[in-house]
Every structure is written in C-alpha cells, then in structure tokens.
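Q: What structure does this chain adopt?
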Amino acid sequence: MRNFSDAHLPVVDGVITVPTGGRTEDFVDAADIAAVAVQTLLDPEAHAGGRYAPTGPRALTVAEVADTITAVTGRPVRHQDIDPEAWIGGAVAAGVVPADYAVMLRRLTGSIVSGDGSTPKDDIEKVTGRPPTAFHDFARRNAGAWVSPGGSEVTMSVPAEEMGEFAALDPFFRIVQEGLAGLVDGGHFFDLLAEDVVVEYVLSVPGYPRRVEGRGAVADLHRGYGDVMLLHSADGLAVHRDPQSSVAVLEYAVHGRAVRTGRAYDNHFVSVLTVRDRKVTHWRDYLDPVAVFRATGWPAEGR
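A:
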C-alpha cells in the first residue's frame, strides 16, 4: 500500500500509471508486515518453522485504489494502464529504481498482468490477533501524502527506502496519526511535523535529550529504536483540542517488549502539540520513566 503514497507509484497529474492488465492484487500495509515481524521476534519459539505471506484483506485493481484515493481526498485520481516494458524502462531512466531492479519489476508486474497476483490470506490476523488494514483505512490515514492544503502533490520527508528503520515504532506512529486526523497533513508520522519543529521531552528517562529541534533531528533520534524496544500495539487514545490556541493534547498507551531483557513494556504518554499551517510546530512529551526502567532492567539489578 505504501508504494501508492511514496515515490514508487505516485499520483502524477491525477493519474497512477502502472501496468496491471486490469488484474487485482491484495495490497498490504507495510505496518502490518512489520507487526508480523515484531511478533515473530517477541516469541520466536511459537513461530519456529512458520512461513507467513502477509496480504491485505481484499484483492483490488489499481482502478479501485484510485477510486478510493479520490473518495478520501476529494481529488480526481484514475489508473492508466501501460505496456510493462515501457513502464519499467521509464522507471529506470527516471532513477526511481536502479537498472538491476528491472528484473524484479518484470516478475512483479508479470505476475499481476497474468492474473497470478497474490490472493488474500489470514496470516496477519493469525499472528497479530487483528485483521489486516483495509486500503480505505490506509488511504484515509495517509490522505495528506497525495494532497497538500494548496492542492499540490507532496513528498515524504523521510525517503521510503529508509522507513524500515522505524518499523518497531509503527504502533506509536499510527496512534498519533489517528489522534491528529483532520488537523494536520502528512503521509507518515514525520510528515506531520514542520521542518523546524521543536520537541521537548519534559518527563523522560536519564540520558535522553530534553530538547530536539528540526524534523530531521527527530527522525535521527528515532533511528535504532528497534534495537531497544519492539512495539506491537497502541491504544487508549483520548484527544483534547483547543481550536482557539491550535493546541491538541493526545493521551495514549503503547505496548511491546524490551529487546535485551525480553520483558513486557507498557507505557502511557501525554503529548501536547501545537499546530500551525496543518503541521506540528511544537511537541511537549510526558511519559512514565519507571515503565522504561522495568522493561529494560535499568539501573542494573542488584546494585
């Protein structure tokens, strides 16, 4: 699904151009794939020998994808089919993919055009306990990826190829996006932030920076989170907004496991956000540091 909201299958002048032969594919949310991966890491014994092929809940044509984007954005979008070799040659020439990736593109497009695209499976629900994300829900959550307030197309602030570095944080990203739906624009968590955003960690843990300035610096701070914690869910969302001051307060909880100790991690957050021009310009964060200590075993036990 994320290919439609980044540079791989962009909407250009209201058109998604990709060869499909009118066939379907069960597009899957990358966050669901990450959730399956997290569960296998948290409980490797339970998944030993398991073979999973995460899919979306329903096979769709790209024309149906375009119709959904139209419905959630109010912006006309349509699918334009194209000769596979012309499309692959254009993608390589434009630098969207390296030349040696053409072989993979031929396999992928050939599978769809021939009618042998993947069919929906229940692996995501089997592993995570929840159904896979429907494209309509993905599109609604990422509507800002296709249209900015001025009606122009927008690009992601973090390159798509780097998003895997943040997979362990997907539940956190998703609940924040849910809480800010309709208030800010952006295709991913980092796109919700103004380029010069200021983030203050008012109540946090020792050694964590108290103030970070700039969207790039916030992204850098979150890199490597998966080396310490793996989140599998987030819930308890409560949203309080003050339209007069453009302030939103989000309350929510995240759940996961500490990588080193294997202990459960459950924390509650309060995030106080200031929004200007449909971007978060200031973020004040409060969390329970004791929950972090319990999960990570800090300070070292026995001392």
